[in-house]
Specification:
This protein has 11 helices and 4 strands. The chain is mainly α and 342 residues long. It has a domain of 212 residues. The strands form 2 sheets. It has a two-stranded antiparallel ribbon with strand order 1-4. Strand 2 and strand 3 form a beta hairpin. Helix 7 packs antiparallel against helix 8, helix 8 runs antiparallel to helix 11 and helix 9 packs antiparallel against helix 10. Bound molecules: FE2/S2 (inorganic) cluster.
Length: 342
């Protein structure tokens, strides 16, 4: 004879029955099975009903009071990575390009003018390949001067390049890349050159927005590597500033106005680099607890304070580089002599 042991009830391991199960316990087996098959369907219906009610209860959107037809923003389809957010569906349907009445275009205009002037000046100077060294000062555009064709000997000459290539070309790519990929400059030139957008609450002229998820703007992610090269260049320009304490004959203990100019330029470049967003992440990022890393916390606190001034430091250091080069250019061209303090 075969005997079957009674099975324990399926209660999910807790040993307790839910209310529905308790109510159904007194029913005959056939009706109990039908009821249990209906339970999941009922739960789904409840959830669907709740979601439908939520969709119908949208909050009032800004602009509705002004008689403007407002379209609620929609999330891009296809996930966050590589998604294309088509601006037409994401923005309020306002006929005017902007409702702003202030002169929001002044700041982008100034940015364009200053950057174009700097680009024009630095391009001319980089290709000029002359008047970049006046003992003991070297222009930051030409430092480190690496080829055997370089004037002066502030840095070891490492190779002989074609004479028609200016020595500045070999090194300008790094400071240029550093500034071009800088988070602040990106905002500045996206707004001023590409009008993307020109200011807050002003529609941009482009139909599609793909952010920095595709080439060539994907290359902006190289900023951290340019930051490392920038630190090396800062070290070399600091070395140049130290050499500026020698006189024309190589004797230490000299200080002229040019010495102060080179020192100020190096200090501004360090401040600009240390206030970089990548620097802030390098010193304080990827930590779960600052209390376990007090030294990094100290660095992070200092860098954060500088970071709050990153925009100002970006502009001041840009002017600093251009003015230092102009000073050396005028000295080397014999326009005036370097005022000497001792
Ligand atoms: S964010 Fe501007 S230099 Fe790094």
């Amino acid at each position: 004879m075969t005997t079957t042991a009674p099975r324990p009830p399926r209660t999910g391991g807790s040993g307790r029955r839910s209310g529905a199960e308790s109510d159904a316990a007194g029913l005959p087996p056939g009706r109990r099975r039908r009821l249990s098959s209906l339970l999941p369907a009922g739960s789904v219906a409840l959830v669907v009903g709740y979601l439908v009610r939520r969709r119908g209860r949208r909050p009032d959107l800004p602009g509705a009071a002004m008689g403007v037809k407002v379209v609620a923003p929609r999330r891009p389809r296809g996930g966050a990575r590589g998604a294309v957010w088509t601006g037409a569906r994401a923005r309020a349907a306002i006929g005017a390009r902007t409702l702003r009445t202030d002169r929001y275009w002044v700041q982008p205009l100034i940015t364009v003018v200053v950057l174009v002037l700097f680009i024009a000046y630095s391009t001319v100077r980089a290709f000029q390949s002359a008047h970049y060294f006046s003992e003991p000062y070297i222009s930051p555009f030409y430092s480190p001067c690496l080829t055997t064709g370089c004037e002066g000997n502030t840095f070891p000459k490492l190779f002989t390049g074609p004479s028609w290539i200016s020595p500045a070309i070999y090194i300008l790519i790094f400071p240029l890349g550093f500034r071009l990929t800088c988070y602040y400059y990106r905002k500045a030139y996206y707004r001023s050159f590409w009008l993307s957008p020109p200011a807050c609450a002003v529609a941009e002229p482009h139909k599609r927005y793909t952010g920095e998820t595709r080439l060539p703007l994907l290359g902006q992610n190289a900023h951290r590597y340019f930051f490392y090269f920038g630190l090396i260049l800062n070290g070399i320009l600091t070395y140049d500033a130290v050499l500026a304490f020698r006189d024309q004959h190589g004797a230490w203990g000299h200080m002229g106005l040019g010495t102060l100019v080179l020192v100020a330029n190096a200090v501004l470049l360090w401040l600009y680099s240390l206030s970089c967003h990548s620097c802030r992440h390098i010193v304080g990022g990827r930590l779960n607890s600052f209390s376990r890393h007090p030294v990094r916390y100290r660095f992070w606190t200092v860098v954060s304070k500088l970071n709050a001034r990153h925009m100002q430091l970006a502009w001041i250091s840009l002017f600093g580089v251009a003015l230092t080069d102009a000073y050396v250019y005028l000295l080397a061209g014999g326009v005036f002599s370097d005022p000497r303090f001792f």
